[in-house]
Structure prediction request, 158 residues.
Amino acid sequence: MNNTASKKKIRNRATAVIYKDEKLLLFRRVKPNAEYFVFPGGGVNDGETVEDALHREVEEELTLKIINYKHLLSINNLKIDNVAINYPTEDQDHHYYLVTDFHGIPELGGSEKESASESNQYHIEWFTFDELKNVENIYPRNIAGMLKQKILQTELCA
Prediction:
Protein backbone atom coordinates (compact mmCIF):
# COMPACT_ATOMS: atom_id res chain seq x y z
CA MET A 1 0.00 0.00 0.00
CA ASN A 2 1.27 3.45 -0.86
CA ASN A 3 1.76 5.50 2.35
CA THR A 4 1.39 8.84 0.63
CA ALA A 5 -2.03 7.89 -0.74
CA SER A 6 -3.35 7.09 2.73
CA LYS A 7 -2.20 10.35 4.34
CA LYS A 8 -4.86 12.92 5.14
CA LYS A 9 -4.39 16.43 3.85
CA ILE A 10 -3.42 18.81 6.63
CA ARG A 11 -4.33 22.45 6.13
CA ASN A 12 -2.17 25.17 7.67
CA ARG A 13 -3.88 28.05 9.45
CA ALA A 14 -2.24 31.33 10.48
CA THR A 15 -3.80 32.73 13.66
CA ALA A 16 -3.25 36.23 15.03
CA VAL A 17 -3.16 36.73 18.78
CA ILE A 18 -3.56 40.49 18.82
CA TYR A 19 -2.53 41.74 22.26
CA LYS A 20 -2.82 45.38 23.29
CA ASP A 21 -3.18 47.01 26.70
CA GLU A 22 -3.25 43.54 28.31
CA LYS A 23 -6.26 42.51 26.23
CA LEU A 24 -6.73 39.99 23.44
CA LEU A 25 -8.83 40.57 20.32
CA LEU A 26 -11.31 37.89 19.31
CA PHE A 27 -14.17 37.55 16.89
CA ARG A 28 -17.51 36.76 18.46
CA ARG A 29 -19.42 34.83 15.83
CA VAL A 30 -23.21 34.67 16.00
CA LYS A 31 -25.12 32.28 13.76
CA PRO A 32 -28.71 31.00 14.04
CA ASN A 33 -27.74 27.94 16.10
CA ALA A 34 -24.36 28.93 17.51
CA GLU A 35 -22.41 31.67 19.24
CA TYR A 36 -18.68 31.27 19.75
CA PHE A 37 -15.33 33.06 19.84
CA VAL A 38 -12.28 32.59 17.61
CA PHE A 39 -8.99 34.36 17.06
CA PRO A 40 -8.65 36.09 13.68
CA GLY A 41 -6.81 34.27 10.94
CA GLY A 42 -7.30 31.79 8.20
CA GLY A 43 -5.92 29.23 5.83
CA VAL A 44 -2.59 29.38 4.06
CA ASN A 45 -3.00 29.57 0.30
CA ASP A 46 -0.89 27.56 -2.15
CA GLY A 47 2.49 29.25 -2.65
CA GLU A 48 2.08 31.35 0.50
CA THR A 49 4.06 31.08 3.73
CA VAL A 50 2.30 30.95 7.09
CA GLU A 51 3.69 34.42 7.85
CA ASP A 52 2.39 35.78 4.53
CA ALA A 53 -1.04 34.36 5.38
CA LEU A 54 -0.89 35.99 8.82
CA HIS A 55 -0.33 39.44 7.29
CA ARG A 56 -2.96 38.90 4.58
CA GLU A 57 -5.64 37.58 6.93
CA VAL A 58 -5.19 40.36 9.51
CA GLU A 59 -5.33 43.01 6.79
CA GLU A 60 -8.38 41.43 5.12
CA GLU A 61 -10.36 40.66 8.28
CA LEU A 62 -9.42 43.62 10.49
CA THR A 63 -7.93 46.26 8.13
CA LEU A 64 -4.71 46.26 10.21
CA LYS A 65 -1.08 46.31 9.04
CA ILE A 66 1.12 44.14 11.26
CA ILE A 67 4.38 45.79 12.31
CA ASN A 68 5.82 43.22 14.73
CA TYR A 69 4.87 39.62 15.41
CA LYS A 70 6.39 36.57 17.05
CA HIS A 71 5.54 32.88 16.71
CA LEU A 72 3.96 31.64 19.96
CA LEU A 73 3.06 28.03 19.30
CA SER A 74 1.79 25.56 16.78
CA ILE A 75 -0.79 22.86 17.34
CA ASN A 76 -0.46 20.06 14.82
CA ASN A 77 -3.24 17.91 13.46
CA LEU A 78 -5.97 19.81 15.30
CA LYS A 79 -9.45 18.40 14.90
CA ILE A 80 -12.26 20.90 15.37
CA ASP A 81 -15.06 19.29 17.36
CA ASN A 82 -17.96 21.62 16.63
CA VAL A 83 -19.58 21.58 13.21
CA ALA A 84 -21.34 24.89 13.90
CA ILE A 85 -18.03 26.61 13.27
CA ASN A 86 -18.02 25.26 9.72
CA TYR A 87 -14.28 24.76 9.43
CA PRO A 88 -13.05 22.67 6.51
CA THR A 89 -13.33 18.96 7.17
CA GLU A 90 -9.60 18.31 6.95
CA ASP A 91 -7.41 18.47 10.03
CA GLN A 92 -5.48 21.68 10.52
CA ASP A 93 -2.09 22.74 11.81
CA HIS A 94 -2.74 25.99 13.69
CA HIS A 95 0.15 28.46 13.94
CA TYR A 96 -0.36 31.18 16.56
CA TYR A 97 1.49 34.48 16.31
CA LEU A 98 1.62 37.21 18.92
CA VAL A 99 0.90 40.60 17.31
CA THR A 100 1.67 43.53 19.62
CA ASP A 101 2.44 46.29 17.16
CA PHE A 102 0.21 47.23 14.25
CA HIS A 103 -1.09 50.22 12.28
CA GLY A 104 -4.77 51.01 12.24
CA ILE A 105 -7.87 50.53 14.31
CA PRO A 106 -9.46 47.08 14.13
CA GLU A 107 -12.61 47.08 12.05
CA LEU A 108 -14.35 44.37 10.11
CA GLY A 109 -13.18 44.07 6.51
CA GLY A 110 -12.86 41.72 3.58
CA SER A 111 -15.13 38.74 3.05
CA GLU A 112 -16.19 38.85 6.72
CA LYS A 113 -17.68 42.30 6.19
CA GLU A 114 -19.22 41.29 2.86
CA SER A 115 -20.86 38.16 4.28
CA ALA A 116 -22.00 39.71 7.57
CA SER A 117 -25.76 39.63 8.07
CA GLU A 118 -28.33 39.08 10.80
CA SER A 119 -27.75 35.32 10.52
CA ASN A 120 -23.95 35.54 10.12
CA GLN A 121 -22.54 38.09 12.55
CA TYR A 122 -18.95 39.08 13.33
CA HIS A 123 -18.18 41.22 16.37
CA ILE A 124 -14.70 42.39 17.36
CA GLU A 125 -14.26 42.09 21.12
CA TRP A 126 -11.36 42.57 23.54
CA PHE A 127 -10.79 40.36 26.61
CA THR A 128 -8.35 40.27 29.49
CA PHE A 129 -7.06 36.83 30.39
CA ASP A 130 -9.27 36.88 33.50
CA GLU A 131 -12.34 37.61 31.39
CA LEU A 132 -11.35 34.94 28.88
CA LYS A 133 -11.30 32.28 31.61
CA ASN A 134 -15.10 32.58 31.76
CA VAL A 135 -15.61 32.17 28.02
CA GLU A 136 -16.61 28.54 27.45
CA ASN A 137 -17.37 28.73 23.75
CA ILE A 138 -13.90 29.64 22.47
CA TYR A 139 -12.39 27.51 19.72
CA PRO A 140 -10.19 25.66 19.80
CA ARG A 141 -11.02 24.77 23.38
CA ASN A 142 -8.41 25.41 26.09
CA ILE A 143 -6.37 27.65 23.80
CA ALA A 144 -6.55 30.65 26.15
CA GLY A 145 -4.52 28.97 28.89
CA MET A 146 -1.82 27.85 26.48
CA LEU A 147 -1.58 31.32 24.94
CA LYS A 148 -1.44 33.07 28.31
CA GLN A 149 1.52 30.93 29.35
CA LYS A 150 3.34 31.60 26.06
CA ILE A 151 2.63 35.35 26.12
CA LEU A 152 3.87 35.68 29.70
CA GLN A 153 7.03 33.76 28.79
CA THR A 154 7.52 36.03 25.77
CA GLU A 155 7.10 39.20 27.90
CA LEU A 156 9.54 37.92 30.52
CA CYS A 157 12.15 37.22 27.85
CA ALA A 158 11.72 40.60 26.15
